[in-house]
Amino acid sequence: MTSEQRFQRHDMDAILGGRRMRRNRRADWTRRLVRETVLTVDDLIWPIFLVDGDGVRQPVPSMPGVERYSVDQAVIEAEKAAALGIPAIALFPFTEPTLRDLSGSESLNPDNLVCRACRAIKAAVPEIGLITDVALDPYTSHGHDGVMDGHVILNDESVALLVRQALNQAAAGADVIAPSDMMDGRVGAIRDSLDTAGFDDVQIMAYSAKYASAFYGPFRDAIGTSKTLVGDKRTYQMDFANSDEALREVELDIAEGADMIMVKPGLPYLDIVRRVKDNFAMPTFAYQVSGEYAMIRAAEQNGWIDGERAMVESLWAFKRAGADGILTYFAPFVAPLLKR
Ligand code: PBG
């Protein structure tokens, strides 16, 4: 040993004083023992896209591995999801363009795609939780989540329609109503109307802190609004520069009767997930949105990252940040790898 090496070793002992963090990491058994968080299938909610027809499975090009399903195929997929132990699925329709109009009236049709899917899935797979999105964007010709007057998205007029949409979904068998529209007061109005109509068991998962995000791009391809959207959604979705404001949004939604809280998008907003969980101790969910899914798939397809490992790591990060569960398009891909 040269005097130089001896010096470095003695120096490290003095610095560490016997404290070596790597001891607990030296083998798989000890890493498992000291692991702080766990990801299981119980943490997963699978968002699926619906399309009209029979026997139809349409790949979504900007979301490799994701397809739109006609109702019969969605039933098959719900059966598979239940068999994998996935607790719940969330439904999103691609509405035929001819059915879209200025006020999104198809959202109130008791036989619209989402309602038909609810009834079929409830009948075939009663054990899986059914979450339906409340917002007008899949049904409006302008792609906005509410009704428009000139370039203004009207709040109270939109809430009146969103309430009727929520009742329509509850009547079709939805277990959880998930308002994603970001209008003020919609959670309270929906809770009130559900209770009055006898749906007091129907839960509300509020998209409370939903940001105006570029990461929704592939989703808008999937439901067919990316080319039709007029302007952007920044007068109702949140500014990505803000964090305190998210806490105020969450506080209001809890006061209005939300059973569960959601933060969206996911990975770039884990600081918000942590603050929400620490401040309110509510069941807190995060949505790993379409653009986040697409980025991992695209890098995987280019051979730039190990897609499977990136998928698992990204989902685990949500748990570490305090999320109770994750809405993720990876659900059917990750579930077989996880313990129940
Ligand atoms: C619409 C809605 C959006 C998403 C869920 N519900 C898009 C938007 O607000 O434009 C995004 C989901 C995703 O990107 O995966 N109310």
TrEMBL record:
Taxonomy, superkingdom: Bacteria
Enzyme nomenclature, EC number: 4.2.1.24
Pathway: Porphyrin-containing compound metabolism; protoporphyrin-IX biosynthesis; coproporphyrinogen-III from 5-aminolevulinate: step 1/4
Molecular functions (GO terms): porphobilinogen synthase activity
Catalyzed reactions per annotation: 2 5-aminolevulinate = porphobilinogen + 2 H2O + H(+)
SMART domains in the record: ALAD
UniProt KW keywords: Heme biosynthesis, Lyase, Porphyrin biosynthesis
Signal peptide start and end residues: none
Keyword Oxidoreductase belongs to the record: no
UniProt-listed InterPro entries: ALAD, ALAD_AS, Aldolase_TIM
Coiled coil: none
Keyword ATP-binding: no
Gene3D superfamilies named in the record: Aldolase class I
Family, as annotated: Belongs to the ALAD family.
NCBIfam families on file: PRK09283.1
Entry protein name: Delta-aminolevulinic acid dehydratase
Organism, as annotated: Kaistia geumhonensis
